[in-house]
Specification:
The structure is a single chain. The protein is of the alpha/beta class. It is built from nine helices and eight strands. It has helices at 23-26, 39-45, 48-51, 95-103, 115-123, 133-145, 175-183, 187-193, 195-205, and strands spanning 8-11, 13-16, 80-83, 107-110, 127-130, 151-154, 159-162, 167-170. A four-stranded antiparallel β-sheet has the order 1-6-7-8, covered by helices on one side. Strands 2-3-4-5 form a four-stranded parallel β-sheet. β6 and β7 (159-162) form a beta hairpin. α2 packs across α4 and α4 (95-103) crosses α5. The longest helix is centred in the last third of the chain and has 13 residues, at 133-145.
Length: 206
């Protein structure tokens, strides 16, 4: 899990138009027994059984293997996934968020998320952005027409913009999680910023 500060993300997108994409599709159960936390291990497992056939060969018509979407995510390129509705349903496995983060994705956009998966994403420095179904379908259409379509996610202002059409929507994010993402803090990092206050409280009350 890469701790990265979030501000404004401008990137091309990978369109994964699968409704009810569950955590078993995101990362198959056989990877859950691993004790490693190596991001590459989980990134390689992301969508594994859709990306590869039983012989380990890439499935040519799966979106992540199409030439226009097969580049590894990096700054400005494929840092955003546009997913179908009810993204991350199924079991609560934290590994699904590890896989998305390990692959290099920083934002997942959907019209709805499973609640536990949404929280797991936030804990792994991946921002889940909920948009309307109309905006979701517009994004899919724009990316299909031009895979180089740029989407801008402005975390301070909580907006997402389809640069192909100029259309924007606001999105919600918990204030504490927004603060943590913008500062690159996990929960422990945040507590450490309060160390002096905690110690002062203990002196006063112990």
């Amino acid at each position: 899990m890469a701790k990265q500060k979030f501000n404004i993300i401008k990137s091309t997108c990978i369109p994964v138009a699968i409704d009810n994409c569950n955590t078993d599709l995101i990362i198959p159960a056989r990877y859950l027994a691993s004790t490693t936390r190596d991001p590459k291990f989980f990134g390689d497992a992301f969508m594994h059984d859709l990306r590869y056939d039983a012989d380990g060969q890439p499935v040519a018509d799966f979106v992540m293997n199409r030439p226009e979407f097969s580049e590894a995510p990096r700054e400005g390129v494929h840092e955003i996934i546009v997913g179908g509705q009810n993204w991350g349903s199924g079991s609560s496995r934290e590994h699904a968020a590890w896989a998305i983060s390990g692959y290099g994705v920083r934002v997942v956009v959907s019209s709805s998320f499973a609640d536990i998966h949404r929280n797991n994403l936030l804990n792994c420095f991946v921002l889940p952005v909920v948009v309307s179904k109309d905006f979701q379908q517009e994004l899919f259409a724009s990316i299909e027409a031009d895979p180089q379509t740029i989407v801008t996610v402005d975390v301070p202002n909580q907006t997402i913009t389809n640069e192909a059409t100029g259309h924007s929507e606001k999105f919600d994010i918990n204030g504490y999680k927004k603060y943590c993402l913008m500062n690159g803090f996990d929960d422990i990092d945040y507590l450490l910023t309060k160390k002096a206050d905690i110690e002062a409280y203990e002196v006063r009350n112990c």
